[in-house]
From TrEMBL:
Protein name: Amidinotransferase
Domain of life: Bacteria
Gene3D superfamilies: L-arginine/glycine Amidinotransferase, Chain A
InterPro entries linked: DDAH-like
NCBIfam families, A to Z: DiMArgaseDdahMtb
Swiss-Prot/TrEMBL keywords: Hydrolase
The family this protein is said to belong to: Belongs to the DDAH family.
Entry keyword annotation includes Lipid metabolism: no
Length: 291
């Protein structure tokens, strides 16, 4: 007699695709001012340690088959290492950032000059306050966007027009999670992870409707900056402190790759903050996706 195979939920096979990333070496990183609750200018920064962590991040991304370009960082712009804030690039179209705080204002034109020297189909500076991938997460057939701390709904409207993609506005309510990429991570075109308490009740309803199967992170995962990770569809590069999130990713067939960015966290950033992706546009909505 043959015993029936035990019923076991199987995680889908995840497929990595090679990505193009843009990073900026933290040669001038320091915490000289405080524009988010993580920053304390009285806490010393160990720049060699920040540089060493960043070099590991770069090497790990390259070792997993991704291309990494670097933007020269400029003196006097200590937050320039957080390249995710430099703009949004999808399918060769780029919108460069306009920063909320005067301390970071010059990063917008600095990154814009770098974009202008690339082969892009279009490039424009944002006319609304817009900190790039900090608040805008490309999710295949839509863009998820944070609102509440750094940008407004008019920035969402500008992004929707520029990229001709629907933008889903999500209100952030906890100042520790001041950018969308501190509270939500896109894992692939249909899968996300997020920390519900960082969002308003209305935003949580939207997320539950659009992503009923999302991975929910807990407070420790979020405070460890685990959601500030980067996914290539299979590997997820994220902080090792996000232990429950790491277990949940594994259970869903992803391969978590721990990358310690604790020195950069003194500036309020983690893995994702340091990585801008030049996204290839994928236009076909996945089957059965909500509008
Ligand atoms: N100190 C920077 C700021 O407050 C950190 C930016 C982090 N970047 C990010 N993509 N969340 O603007």
């Amino acid at each position: 007699m043959t015993a029936a195979a035990p019923l076991r939920a199987t995680a889908p096979a995840r497929v990595a695709t090679s990505r193009r990333y843009v990073l900026c070496r933290p040669d001038h990183f320091e915490v000289a001012y405080a524009i988010n609750p993580w920053m304390d200018p009285a806490t010393p920064v160990d720049r060699p340690r920040a540089l060493a962590q960043w070099e590991i991040l770069r090497a790990v991304l390259e070792d997993h088959g991704h291309s990494v370009e670097t933007v020269p960082c400029e003196p006097g712009l200590p937050d320039m290492v957080f390249a995710a804030n430099s703009g949004i690039v999808i399918g060769g179209h780029a919108l460069s950032a306009r920063f909320a705080h005067p301390e970071r204002a010059a990063e917008g034109p600095a990154f814009h000059r770098w974009f202008a020297a690339r082969e892009l189909r279009s490039l424009a500076p944002a006319s609304e306050t817009n900190e790039g991938e900090g608040d805008f997460a490309f999710a295949g057939h839509r863009i998820l966007a944070g609102v509440g701390f750094r940008c407004s709904l008019s920035a969402h409207a500008e992004v929707e027009r520029y990229f001709d993609l629907p933008v889903v506005s999500l209100e952030l309510v906890d100042p520790r999670f001041y950018h969308l990429d501190t509270a939500l991570m896109v894992l692939d075109d249909t899968t996300i992870a997020y920390y519900p308490a960082a969002f308003s009740p209305a935003a949580r309803d939207v997320l539950t409707t659009l992503y009923p199967d999302a991975i929910l992170a807990d407070e420790n995962d979020a405070l460890s900056f685990g959601l500030n990770g980067v996914s290539d569809g299979h590997h997820v590069f994220l902080d090792p402190g996000a232990t429950n999130l790491i277990a949940a990713l594994r259970a869903r067939g992803f391969a978590p790759i721990p990358v310690d960015m604790s020195e950069l966290r003194k500036g309020g950033g983690g893995v994702k903050c340091c990585v801008l992706e030049l996204h290839t546009r994928r236009d076909t909505p996945p089957p059965h996706s909500p509008a």
